Amino acid sequence: MRRLLLISNSTLHDGGYLGHCKEQIKQFLSDKVKTVLFVPYALHDRDWYAGKAKEAFTTFGYDVQSIHQQPDALGAINQAQAIFIGGGNTFRLLKTLYDEKIVEAIRKRVLEDGIPYIGSSAGSNVATASIKTTNDMPIVYPPSFDALKLVPFNINPHYMEPDANNTHMGETREQRIKQFHEYEDSPPVLGLREGCMLLVEDRKATLLGKTDAKLFVRGKDPVEYKVGSDMSFLLQSTL
Amino acid sequence: MRRLLLISNSTLHDGGYLGHCKEQIKQFLSDKVKTVLFVPYALHDRDWYAGKAKEAFTTFGYDVQSIHQQPDALGAINQAQAIFIGGGNTFRLLKTLYDEKIVEAIRKRVLEDGIPYIGSSAGSNVATASIKTTNDMPIVYPPSFDALKLVPFNINPHYMEPDANNTHMGETREQRIKQFHEYEDSPPVLGLREGCMLLVEDRKATLLGKTDAKLFVRGKDPVEYKVGSDMSFLLQSTL
Ligand SMILES: [Ca+2]
Ligand SMILES: [Ca+2]
């Protein structure tokens, strides 16, 4: 059974690292998981990042191993009880997943073996159909924008409305997503506001957290969904 | 002699399309140029975009041909008196330049034949070393992030400082550029604020416009440069 917790962002402005989603993470992993495999590839300083993840998950009651400190990345994925991919730069993250040749292995562990997957920000982007709706700067060239395809739609993390007082002329987030939908066969995009997350359990998907989400479907007007909404219909679209 | 006018953005909040850079464009093209070849590839609706460019350049005293309405894109580049590449989505723009097989031809016309090149926003991104410092969403996968390499550095158009009142947790522009500079051999990034542009004439580069620019060099603190600053040193870096 597929189980995913896809979080918009790791840190809310009024809380510590993973503070706002602590309860959801504990409930998601339960006491069946003892050790979480952390993937720090989205940031440059992996040792620092692994320390930060370890600190948070230790207070939640879990051990953490960072994949970059294991002798064999593929072996680490194959033995993982649960995977947490942290945020940072989505391009760097996806390129490293391809470089380490673990894209297919993660898919198999999550979709076939049913190990729990937690993603935050860039880690949520790579869980979806593609990274084409990341907000990040393309600082490095991955071999593809296709991502782990654990779900058949896209996510836009840190989703936000434009600031009405701002005179900046760059595209709004909604305009950017509309440009994505100018392409045929572009899947739905779930805009997860900071504080929001999506729980996927097999064929059921539910919005959790403190804030709402906005769904963009090609050719349709965007629709707001409140915390608690059943989003299972998103899992029925085909890739 | 290489001649470029690289504009941060086409529209300032208090003016019409290309209104804020009208005088600089007229002085740059002078009366030697009669017809400008417009490249609308960064936006989906090319006819609409060509009309908008035509309207603006007509009031400046130039004819406009849009490359998408020519029978042969490569032939149009080879016969152009001047090229203007407009803004939109940088990934879509660069992919189309590669798809149309005109990357090398534009380089040759600008660097060898010396025809004037005007870029705005995405059109400025593609003029540089790479598109790795665009702000745009990666809605489509280009065959490379390498760009036209008309100059040996990168540009970040629409450059802006973070809003001090904003609690949003996404990376600031400066943090994103710092992540780009975590890679060895990453070239300088010129952050052009809206209203700012860079004039390049052979080995001389000068900031023009109403606003200042901020230069980011790997391993160094960023430096502010005022309108009128001589930026020629940026042309000496090698790719
Ligand atoms: Ca990020
Ligand atoms: Ca743009």
Automatic annotation (TrEMBL), chains A, B:
Keywords: Cytoplasm, Dipeptidase, Hydrolase, Protease, Serine protease
One GO term of the biological process aspect: proteolysis
Keyword Membrane applies: no
Pfam families: Peptidase_S51 (PF03575)
Record has Transcription as a keyword: no
First-level EC class: hydrolase
SUPFAM superfamilies: Class I glutamine amidotransferase-like (SSF52317)
Location in the cell: Cytoplasm
Reaction it catalyzes: Dipeptidase E catalyzes the hydrolysis of dipeptides Asp-|-Xaa. It does not act on peptides with N-terminal Glu, Asn or Gln, nor does it cleave isoaspartyl peptides
GO cellular component, one term: cytoplasm
Main location as per UniProt: cytoplasm
Record's function text: Hydrolyzes dipeptides containing N-terminal aspartate residues.
Protein name: dipeptidase E
Organism: Mytilus coruscus (Sea mussel)
